[in-house]
Design a protein that fits this description.
77 residues, 25% strand, four-stranded mixed beta sheet, alpha+beta, binds zinc ion, 27% helix
């Protein structure tokens, strides 16, 4: 499956209850809540790849793998 953040790299995806865990060679290891994917699909949003990667890198100090939620998601403008 293609990584949902960058949309270009083939990534390992594990479906878990309410969230997916993803390991992308470009974006790293992270989890993403199902509600973020639902909002994306309902609105046709895309992730801001640079901002999301920067957020993931910073967040890993506190939470590894980081969880992207509807509060922390960085949508492309
Ligand atoms: Zn990626």
């Amino acid at each position: 499956m293609v990584c949902p953040v960058c949309g270009t790299t083939e990534a390992q995806v594990w479906k878990e209850p309410g969230r997916n865990a993803i390991d992308c060679t470009e974006c790293g290891h992270y989890t993403i809540s199902g509600s973020v994917l639902a909002v994306r699909d309902a609105n046709g949003y895309k992730f801001d790849v640079e901002q999301t990667r920067a957020w993931l890198d910073g967040r890993r100090k506190f939470q590894d793998p980081p969880l992207i939620t509807t509060q922390s998601v960085c949508w492309a403008a």
